Every structure is written in structure tokens, then in C-alpha cells.
From TrEMBL, chain A:
It comes from Jiella mangrovi. This is ABC transporter permease. It is found in: Cell membrane. It is a multi-pass membrane protein. Keywords: Cell membrane, Membrane, Transmembrane, Transmembrane helix, Transport. The chain crosses the membrane at residues 9-30, 99-122, 134-155, 178-197, 235-261, 281-307. The keyword Transmembrane applies. Belongs to the binding-protein-dependent transport system permease family. Residues 95-304 form the ABC transmembrane type-1 domain.
TrEMBL record, chain B:
This is ABC transporter permease. The keyword Membrane applies. Belongs to the binding-protein-dependent transport system permease family. Residues 87-271 form the ABC transmembrane type-1 domain. It comes from Jiella mangrovi. Pfam families: BPD_transp_1, OppC_N. Its main location: membrane. It is found in: Cell membrane. CDD domains: TM_PBP2 (cd06261). InterPro entries: BP-dependent_transpt_permease (IPR050366), MetI-like (IPR000515), MetI-like_sf (IPR035906), OppC_N (IPR025966). It is a multi-pass membrane protein. Keywords: Cell membrane, Membrane, Peptide transport, Protein transport, Transmembrane, Transmembrane helix, Transport. It comes from the Bacteria.
């Protein structure tokens, strides 16, 4: 098992290295001079030359690449061109709303999707099953920003149940700030629950067809125990996997949802960075998010070892 | 007699596909959306760019069936023309990412030496959330419709490549590939004539889903203001423009939102139907 964990960690490092390489390439393959691009059309050639020197763009490409990788490994993702501060500290400041938005919406989607998924798998083909599957597909087809705008207008502006947008003032306490995340988390949770519901249902269907389920029933075990004890326990692996995989979906959804609700998180940071041509911020956010994704998927892989005693690598 | 025999064995793709009511409805809806977009210049009631101060924010069911926007432009006409752009971008991404994914996936699955590096590259690409990677690429490439297609194709290529690689790994070991090799076929001809035809089904299914995802992603990019130029009407830019007037004129975001959702939903249903019809082994209740 230790060998597996080490092998998995090594694979993770290779992918992380590739992630860094890809983000480096993305900014460097841009047509034209990156310095001129970052400065925008009003910059003089002198400004561009200065920025090139500060960013080290006047050095050979391999030297730039080596320096980029070395400093990234040490946690230095460069300086923001707009904030004039280290990229990582700018991102860290914006992390709170994004992290809690992702966490709350994940909880909401699991609370909605897993019980419904189990129930409709058990009542396969029934009205509830067809209804749930169709609703999930519809939820996955509606753009999250649109659901956000409509619910914002209805539940926040018209009914006043939730704050419409923002993240509280600078003086707002923690609970106040979290209050601003409830409606956005519901929006994102609905979108996310579609995928989790489909996977929960599918993996429960697979498991409920197994021989040991029939054996458990024939032993006279109650239906509730059959489904919860034997069924859910064995369906847990695919469900955990998909919860890990929805992280990417959550981040994509969060970028747009933050924009709808004017939440100053990492999504708003990136969109702002695009409009301000703050390339180090874009690059840094890509690296941070991809690293989180890789780590989360490593954790879900390792979780298998805990959940299912049959898994032995 | 022969015809009857052949239908009993293989009912044909079209028949299997249309046998499920949901898929049939999806085909009709998507066909209608496609036809409306193609025919936009002939069926649109007005010039989508013509402004009118008097018609400003006039509600639906008056002079304008779907109302008029903040510049007094006819929403229905804009919806029709926006559909051309949104659908073209979705289709373009589906075609381009499929082509790129086939090349990368075949190379990874067929040549053992390329497998490890290409597979790791695919893993690394898939670590980026789609919208985020697309935002970065569009920021670098510039916000034209062609660049949005290119950026989203790069984002979705790994999905196709993964499927092609997995299928190629299996097919590579089958006896008929060995037979072709024994007969002196080159690697390229084995890939094109023996492997590719056998993986058309999973690729088609995935390409349909990518068509749908790409339309959602394009709408998201346009909504964020980092997609195609805001002056070009797409369903996403229409929602983005309409959100400023959401308190007075909800219909401005309602209609483009419904258009995106209907197009994406019908594509997903068609993708599901195709999966069940093309490859019964893949048929799952997911």
C-alpha cells in the first residue's frame, strides 16, 4: 500500500510539473510581445522594454522557464501587475468567499442529490425516478448564471429573503459575510447536484443488482438495512469519486456565480485580471486551482482505501 | 423478405434513436432551433441591429413578440441571429476538439512510447476547470469568435483524446489488427482503416456532449464579458446585456436563457440516445 501511495504521489508531481509548464506556455505563446500585451495599446516602446526587463522577458526562453519553475516550486508565483504585490497573497485574500461558496454548495448538492439518488435507484423506473432524472438533466442544461440571475431577482430583490449581492462591508462579521453566500451556494448547489444525483443513482443501480444484495434479502434483512448497509457502502466509491471530480465544475460555476452576486472571490479576481491584462494573476490562479484539483483527487483516491477494504493497490 | 429480415436484426440507427419519445422530442426541438438559426436572415421580423428610441424596453406581446431591448432592438430577431453565432461556436468546438482529440488519442493508444507523456499531459489539461482555462486562453488569444472556438477546443480536446486512447488500447490487441499487420499494413493505415471505424460510436456520443458543453461555456464567457466581442449578439451576450435591466425587463434575460437551455438540453438528450443506440454495451442509466 505504501508503494501505491508513493507511486501515486510521484505521478501527482509529474502532473503538477506539467500544469506549471502549460501555464508558462499559455502566456508565452501569445502572439506578439507579452509586455506590450500586458500594458495595452497606450504603452510606449520604452515602457514595454522596462516591463520586459522586470519580468525577465529579455532572457532566453529556457532561462525564463527554469526561473519560473524554480520560483513556483518555492511558492513565488510572481508579482501582480495591477496590485503590485505577490500573486499568492492577492489570491489568498480572495480565497475566503470562494472556498466557503464551494464548500456550502458542495454540502447542499450532497444533501439534495445523494438521498434522492439512492431513493430513485431503489424505485427504478417509477414516476419519482423519471422525474428526478429529467430534472437533473434540465438542471445541468440551464446556465448557472441564468439560474443565479432569476433567483436573485425573485428571492432577493422581490421577496427580500436573501441579500441580493456583495459580501458585506469591510466591517461585516464572519456570520454576516456567510449570509451573503447562502443564495449563491444554493444556485451552485442545484447545478452541481445534477451530476452527483446521476452518479449516485447509477452506482446504486449497479450495486443493487449484485448477488450479495439478493443474499442479504433472502436472509430476511430489512429493506432499509439492505439498501443502507450493503448498498450504499458499496456504491460509496463512485460517489466519492464524483464528489472529487465536481470540484472542477464547482470552480467553473463559482467564477460565474461570483460575478452574478458581486462576490469578491477568486472568480471575480480572474475576470478582473483579464480586463486589466494582469497575466501573472491569471497564471497564478490557474496554478492554484489546478493544484487543488490534483490534491483533492489524490485525497479521494486515498479515501477509497478507508471506505472499501477490498481496494488494495 | 430481405428488407424485413434486415430490420429485425438491425433496426437502424434512426429507428432506434426515434423510438424513445424523449430523444424524438429532442431531435425535433434541436432541429427547429437549428432551422431557425440558419433561416434567420429570411424569417427574422426585423434587422437585429436596428435601434428605435420609441420601442425602448417595450414588453413582449406588443409590437414586438418577444419585446425590445434597451436600444429598442427586436429581441426575437436578435435571438435568431445570436443562435447562428452560439450554435456555430458549439459546432466548431465539437468538430475541432474531436479532430485534435482523435490525433492525440490515436497516437497515445497506438505508440507505447508516446502513451505515458501524452496521458500525463491529458491529466494535466483536465486539472484546469473548463471556464477558467478558457478565460485564460481567450485573454491571451483575444476575444474573437474564432479564438473562442480555438480556446474551447483546447479545453475539450483531452476529453475526446482520453476516450480514443482507451478504445485504441483495446482494439490494438484484437486479432484483426494483428492480421492486418501480418499482411503488411502500415501503422497509419491500421489506424485509419481498422481502429478509427471501430471507435466512431463513442466519439460521436462524446462530440455531441461537447457541442452542448461548449455552448454553455461560450454563454458563460460572454456573460463574464471575456468571450466574443460584446457587439456580436450571442445568447450569452444577450443575457449579459439584459441583466442591467433585470428589474424592469426580466424577459430580456428570460428568452436567451431559455434558448440556451433548450439547445443544451436537447443536445444532451440526443447524446444519451446516440449512446444507447450506437453501442448497447455503453448503455447505462447515467
Amino acid at each position: 500500500m505504501l508503494k501505491y501511495i508513493l507511486k501515486r504521489l510521484f505521478g501527482m508531481l509529474v502532473v503538477l510539473f506539467l500544469v506549471l509548464t502549460i501555464t508558462f506556455v499559455i502566456v508565452r505563446v501569445a502572439p506578439g510581445d507579452p509586455a506590450a500585451l500586458m500594458l495595452g495599446p497606450d504603452a510606449t516602446p520604452q515602457d514595454a522594454a522596462e516591463l520586459r526587463a522586470t519580468l525577465g522577458l529579455d532572457q532566453p526562453i529556457l532561462v525564463q522557464y527554469g526561473k519560473f519553475i524554480l520560483s513556483a516550486v518555492q511558492g513565488d508565483l510572481g508579482q501582480s501587475l495591477f496590485f503590485h504585490r505577490p500573486v499568492l497573497s492577492v489570491i489568498a485574500e480572495r480565497a475566503e468567499p470562494s472556498a466557503f461558496l464551494a464548500l456550502f454548495s458542495l454540502i447542499i448538492s450532497i444533501v439534495i442529490a445523494v438521498p434522492i439518488g439512492i431513493f430513485v435507484a431503489y424505485r427504478r423506473g417509477g414516476v419519482a425516478d423519471q422525474g428526478a432524472v429529467s430534472t437533473a438533466m434540465l438542471a445541468a442544461s440551464v446556465p448557472s448564471f441564468w439560474t443565479g440571475l432569476v433567483l436573485q431577482r425573485w428571492l432577493a430583490s422581490d421577496l427580500g429573503w436573501f441579500p441580493a449581492s456583495g459580501y458585506g462591508g469591510p466591517a461585516a462579521g464572519f456570520l454576516d459575510r456567510m449570509g451573503y453566500l447562502v443564495l449563491p451556494a444554493i444556485v451552485l448547489g442545484i447545478v452541481n447536484s445534477a451530476l452527483i444525483l446521476r452518479f449516485t443513482r447509477a452506482s446504486m443501480l449497479d450495486v443493487l443488482g449484485e448477488d450479495y444484495i439478493r443474499t442479504a434479502r433472502s436472509k430476511g434483512m430489512s429493506e432499509g438495512r439492505v439498501v443502507m448497509k450493503h448498498g450504499l457502502k458499496n456504491a460509496a466509491i463512485p460517489i466519492v469519486t464524483v464528489v472529487g471530480l465536481t470540484f472542477a465544475l464547482l470552480v467553473s460555476g463559482a467564477v460565474v456565480t461570483e460575478r452574478v452576486f458581486n462576490i469578491p472571490g477568486m472568480g471575480s479576481l480572474v475576470v478582473g485580471a483579464v480586463l486589466r491584462r494582469d497575466y501573472p494573476i491569471i497564471q497564478g490562479t490557474l496554478i492554484v486551482v489546478a493544484t487543488l484539483y490534483i490534491l483533492i483527487n489524490l485525497c479521494t483516491d486515498l479515501l477509497y482505501l478507508l471506505i472499501d477494504k477490498r481496494v488494495r493497490y | 423478405m430481405t428488407a424485413a429480415a434486415s430490420t429485425s436484426e438491425d433496426p437502424g440507427l434512426w429507428k432506434t434513436l426515434t423510438a424513445r419519445p424523449a430523444v424524438l422530442v429532442a431531435l425535433v426541438v434541436f432541429g427547429a432551433i437549428l432551422a431557425a438559426a440558419i433561416l434567420a436572415p429570411w424569417i427574422a421580423p426585423a434587422d437585429p441591429a436596428r435601434m428605435s428610441v420609441r420601442a425602448r424596453l417595450s414588453p413582449p406581446l406588443g409590437d414586438y413578440i418577444f419585446g425590445a431591448d434597451a436600444f429598442g432592438r427586436d429581441v426575437l430577431s436578435r435571438l435568431l441571429f445570436a443562435g447562428r453565432v452560439s450554435l456555430s461556436i458549439g459546432l466548431g468546438v465539437a468538430v475541432l476538439s474531436t479532430a485534435l482529440g482523435i490525433v492525440i488519442g490515436l497516437a497515445a493508444g497506438f505508440f507505447r512510447r508516446l502513451d505515458a507523456p501524452l496521458s500525463r499531459l491529458i491529466d494535466a489539461m483536465m486539472a484546469f476547470p473548463d471556464i477558467l482555462l478558457a478565460i485564460a486562453l481567450v485573454a491571451i488569444l483575444g476575444g474573437s469568435a474564432a479564438n473562442v472556438v480555438l480556446a474551447l477546443s483546447i479545453v475539450y480536446t483531452p476529453r475526446i483524446a482520453r476516450i480514443v486512447r482507451a478504445a485504441t488500447l483495446v482494439i490494438r490487441e484484437l486479432p484483426y489488427v494483428e492480421a492486418a499487420r501480418a499482411l503488411g499494413s502500415s501503422n497509419l493505415s491500421i489506424m485509419v482503416w481498422h481502429v478509427l471505424p471501430n471507435i466512431v460510436s463513442p466519439i460521436t456520443v462524446q462530440a455531441t456532449f461537447i457541442f452542448a458543453y461548449a455552448m454553455l461555456a461560450e454563454a458563460g464567457l460572454s456573460f463574464l464579458g471575456v468571450g466574443v466581442d460584446p457587439s456580436i449578439p450571442t445568447w450569452g451576450t444577450m443575457v449579459n446585456e439584459g441583466r442591467q435591466y433585470i428589474d424592469q425587463a426580466l424577459y430580456l434575460i428570460l428568452f436567451p436563457g431559455i434558448a440556451i437551455s433548450l439547445a443544451v438540453l436537447s443536445l444532451q438528450l440526443i447524446g444519451d440516445g446516440l449512446r444507447d443506440a450506437l453501442d448497447p454495451r455503453l448503455a447505462k442509466d447515467v
